[in-house]
Design brief:
The protein has about 525 residues and is an alpha+beta fold. It has helices spanning about 30-40, 60-65, 70-85, 110-115, 135-140, 165-170, 185-290, 295-310, 330-355, 435-445, and strands at about 20, 25-30, 100, 105-110, 125-130, 155-160, 165, 180, 375, 380-385, 395, 405-415, 420-425, 455, 460-465, 475-480, 490, 495-500, 510-515, 520-525, 525-530. The chain is built from ten helices and 21 strands. The strands form five sheets. Strands 9, 10, 12, 16, 17, 18, 20 and 21 form an eight-stranded antiparallel β-sheet that branches. Strand 1 and strand 2 form a beta hairpin.
Length: about 525
């Protein structure tokens, strides 16, 4: 049952008068919509701000008249007025009415109700107690009257004119209309259509409610994930702060001990020099005084004694070598600590990002014992030359076969020369299938070509990047990618340098040749490219 406030317009707060259905589904009186649209440009629904589209001529009244009218609400308002007005008999006028005719919608007292049920024209009407009748029931029982003869029962419905008409109008005014059906049949068809519409709206409502619930649940998951991530960040930062604090204390203690050792040595030297300085000063006074009182025969003996005494003094000012030893600087050590922490944070960030983007991506690590003069650390992700100054190359190869459309990159960590020379490519040779003594020889058995030239050798493609990498600095990234069509691409600092080889035979293993100018590289997490 509709509540009283549901029959009120949100603008004028009175019962609806010609209620219009806005595009958003809200109802407003016709005049209220016109006034609202005229009060401000581009006015929307006052309840939800949904726009009310104006017609091309900009007329508010034409726009409102084009909106559908809610005839059901109009009937409910009228029925509510009938039910709520004074319950007085429409015949007796001053006698309380206890009954109402559902068809005539007239209030009747007990006596008039008996007469109403006896008349031939009204004996079939439904007469009910006023206390049990609702506006909805009264509106539903209202008789369908002819559109042209308001006092005659409508029996037909003209689809062409969209009017309910009586039999006389059907025979005269609507005799040429092609679609004129019985009103009851039309009502049944409309009820069926409304039932179908209700089903569609109910299903849509349920789906939207489910979708909103899923989004709400997802929002909650995002909030929880954010809180967990924030907590993890705080925990990680606290751990890093503790590590940094520990390193800081360790470095300070180390510096303090180094300087304390040198300070003690210098203090000992200073004390010895001060003692010697005192002896020299005392003897200088004696000699000066002796010179002042000359000549005397006693000076002959005095002079010999002073000479022997002075000759016995250690007058050397040649300071020991450790006096000039400079305290070991911790700047380089601190810079190394900062770099390590930065590398770890960068690697952690990259791993986190790649794991979110594609959990199926492989982790890029080097094959054990695949290089010459190479030591693998950091879970086989960092390759470092054991003797950086040694002339020759060191080869490192990916542990597993490469995946198509995935970049395999290394970061240049340390260089020892002015020219950064680093060759990289792919090889078909699986390092795991070769003896340790044969791996480096088979992987290195080739001549490195000039930039831009491609050398094929034993199912392998190696590319020299010496010229291209001259401008690269420590921290630069270089990598290779093989497409699903077997084309080899070169990547420098994440930028695709184009196809450098075609029809590369599968399987592929990423291979990096570390020249003497590069002493340390780190394999970065792989990343997919479309």
């Amino acid at each position: 049952m509709a509540e009283p406030h549901e029959r009120e317009c949100a603008v004028c707060t009175n019962d609806f008068t010609t209620p219009k259905i806005l595009p958003c589904g809200h109802l407003l009186c016709r005049e209220c919509v016109i006034s609202w649209m005229d009060s401000k440009p581009d006015a929307g629904c006052p309840l939800c701000r949904c726009p009310i589209v104006k017609q091309s001529d900009g007329s508010s009244s034409d726009t409102v008249d084009a909106l559908p009218t809610d005839f059901v609400m109009e009937a409910l308002v009228e029925s509510a007025r009938v039910v709520s007005k004074d319950h007085l008999c429409c015949v007796c006028e001053d006698v309380r009415a206890d009954f109402i005719c559902m068809q005539c919608q007239d209030m009747l007292c007990t006596a008039c109700t008996k007469a109403h049920r006896k008349f031939s024209g009204t004996r079939s009407h439904d007469v009910e107690s006023v206390s049990t009748v609702t506006p909805e029931r009264l509106a539903a029982s209202r008789p369908a009257l002819c559109a042209d003869h308001g006092d005659k029962q409508a029996e037909y419905f003209c689809r062409e004119h969209r009017l309910a008409v009586c039999s006389a109008c059907k025979a005269n005014k609507h005799k040429v209309c092609l679609e004129t059906n019985y009103l009851d049949d039309e009502i049944k068809s409309v009820e069926s259509s409304l039932t179908d519409l209700t089903k569609i709206l109910v299903e849509a409502e349920q789906k939207l409610e489910q979708a909103i619930g899923q989004v709400t649940s997802r929002l909650h998951e995002v909030d929880v994930s954010e809180q967990e991530d924030m907590a993890q960040v705080d925990k990680t930062c606290d751990r890093l702060h503790k590590l940094v604090e520990d390193v800081c204390n360790t470095l300070k203690d180390k510096c303090r001990k180094q300087h304390l050792k040198i300070r003690k040595s210098l203090c000992d030297v200073k004390t010895a020099l001060s003692n010697c300085f005192g002896k020299v000063t005392s003897h200088k006074h004696i000699v000066t005084r002796a010179v002042a009182v000359s000549p005397r025969p006693a000076l002959i003996h005095m002079t010999q004694a002073l000479t022997d005494r002075v000759n016995s003094l250690d007058l050397s000012t040649d300071l020991q070598g450790e006096v000039w030893v400079k305290p070991l600087s911790s700047v380089e050590c601190c810079q190394e600590v900062v770099r390590v922490i930065q590398d770890e944070l960068l690697m952690l960030t990259q791993e986190k990002t790649e794991s979110k983007l594609d959990p199926q991506l492989p982790v890029f690590v080097f094959q054990d014992n695949c290089g010459n003069n190479i030591r693998l650390t950091n879970d086989n992700r960092t390759a470092e030359r054991i003797e950086p100054s040694t002339i020759g190359e060191g080869m490192v190869v990916s542990r597993d076969p490469m995946v198509a459309n995935v970049v395999y990159e290394v970061r240049v960590d340390t260089v020892t020369g002015g020219f950064v020379e680093l060759a990289l490519g792919v090889t078909k040779i699986s390092p795991a299938g070769l003896p340790v003594t044969q791996r480096s020889r088979d992987l290195q058995d080739s001549t490195i070509m000039w930039p831009g030239l491609v050398l094929r050798h034993r199912e392998r493609v190696l590319i020299l990047l010496a010229k291209e990498l001259i401008s690269l600095e420590v921290g630069s990234r270089v990598g290779v990618l093989v497409t699903s069509s077997n084309n080899l691409h070169l990547y420098i600092n994440g930028q695709d340098q184009g196809v450098t080889a075609e029809n590369v035979t599968q399987p592929w293993f990423a291979v990096f040749s570390i020249c003497s100018s590069v002493s340390k590289v780190t394999a970065l997490p792989t990343s997919r490219r479309t």
